[in-house]
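ok trying this again, last paste got cut off
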Amino acid sequence: MKKYKNPKPERLTDESVFFARRRFVKSLGLGIAGSVGVVAAGRHWLKTPLNLRPKIKTFAESKVFANGGRRLTDQEDFLRFNNFYEFAQDKTSVIRKSKDFQIDPYSLVIDGLVDQPIKIDIEDIERKSLEERIYRFRCVETWAMTVPWIGVPLNELLKMVRIQPNARYVEMISFSDQTQAPRQGTSAYPWPYTEGLTIEEAMNPLSFVAIGAYGRYLHPQNGAPLRIVLPWKYGFKGPKSVVRITLTASRPRTFWNEIQPSEYGFFGNVDPDVPHPRWSQRNETLLGTWGKQQKTQKYNGYGEWVADLYYGTEV
C-alpha cells in the first residue's frame, strides 16, 4: 500500500473516535452537524488546520490505473483547492466553510427505471472490494490534477438494481441541506446539484464511485462521503456528496447546463478543440505548478476507453 506524505499542520481525528461516532449517530437515525476534533485557526485558508480523515484500511491498488502518466498532485493542494458551490464561490475558503459538514448516517438511493431499487449504507460500500485508481482530473476552468481515488466502479452498483430496458440516462443528485450549506438557500442556482450521464457512459469501466483519496476517507471539501469521478469529462460532471442515483428514460436537467447552456454542455467531455466561450481549452495548468502549462488531451487522454461512445462533438 502506498504511503502518502501527510500535509502540515496535521490535526488527525483518532480513528476509534470517528467510527464510534458513526455507530452512535447511526443508532439514533439522525443527521448531526458537527465535526470531531476540529480546531478553528483564523479565517484565511492558509491558516485553516487540516483535520485529516481516518485511513481506509483495506483496498487494492489498480494494476490498470496504477499511475496517471504524470506527477501525483500533492495531497495538501488537493485538500485546499476545491470547487464546491454549496459552500463557497471561491476555491480556497471551502475547506473552512465545509469543515463541519456531515451526512451521517449516510445512504445512497438508486431508483427509477429499475426492477430492484436499493438503499445502500456507506458501510455496505466500504465492505466491497475497494480499489485505488490514479486518475487525471481536468476542470473546465483549465486547471488539472492527478489523484489516487479509492472506491468502486459505478457499474458495480448499477448492476445491483436490474436496469429496465427503457432506461437511457442516469441522474445523479447531491445532498440538499440549507442548515449545513446556507448557499443552497439562494434561488440564483437550481439546487440541489444534479448531473447526468447516458447509460453507456455510466456503465463504462472508467466511471467511478469514490469514497476516499490518498488512502483516507474523503474530506468534506472534497465531496464526502461519496462522489462520482469521470476522468474523461470536465470536473463539473462529477457531483460531490451524492445521495441519489435515478435511472430515467429522458435526459435529466443538469446544474451548470441549466444555468448557462452555451458554456456547459450536457456531455462535458474534455476536448482541446472545443473552446469555452470565454477561454481556450487547448492548455491546462497542474495544481502546484502555476504558470507552467501543458497541452490538453482529448478525453483527457482516455480516448481508448470512451471514444467509441461518441459520434462527433457531443455538447
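PB: full thing came through this time. The CA atoms of residues 110 and 158 lie 8 Å apart.
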